[in-house]
Design goal:
The longest helix is centred in the N-terminal third of the chain and has 35 residues, at 2-36. With 246 residues, the protein is α+β, with helices and mostly antiparallel strands. It is 17% helix and 44% strand.
Length: 246
Amino acid sequence: MNRRLTFLLASCMLFIAAPLYAVEGTELLQQIDRNLNPESFESYRKIINIEPNGRKKEYIYFTAKKGKDKIAGLFLAPASDKGRSTIRLGDNMWLYVPNVGKPIRITSLQSVIGGVFNNADILALDYSVEYNAEKVEDLGNEYLLCCKAKTKTVAYDRLKIWVDKSKILPTKIECLTEAEMLIKTLYFKDTKDFGGGIVRPSIIETDSPLYKGYKSVMIFAKIAKREFSDEVFTLTFMPNMESLLK
């Protein structure tokens, strides 16, 4: 009788612990989101594509984000791309090219700049919007957070996120298919104080086994809290994105 009671108690404890563990992972993922960015903000980035022969192409990109599912961007350089703008509303993305005159639908796996970063990387939403935390492993100085996409429209079916325990910031993210084939790796480097309580990596580098020898780098020059009107995230506003620059 005692052995049966012990077994039942152990089974109950496992049943209780499972959802608590899942909540812990969800809270960790949400904390990573807020440590990387405020919910609504502006940022200035340089994005560099590096080819195997060492040739580079650089872009300067302004970003406006509001809430969890609205993000817009404007290319400031090079001159050939200046004035191009992008918006993302949930899973839907558009590109505006001045001499075309109307927004064009784009997808998350395409890239408006070429290179290893795709549109989902450039117009990134909070991780907790697109992913569920499935498992957390304690690695000593880091956590390993395993996540699964909430829908089939998300660019990567699975993420493995290595998290610095002391800062609750990612150090590396592996982006995987459903079969756990590696698509790309993101490396988070050079943590910087941007002011306003924002302390986060200022550099994200990426490489991919699908693009051998190629590398892309994202360098954040400024991130600051800022509120935007809903009008900013509409197709009709895309030609006027430059009016947001201070």
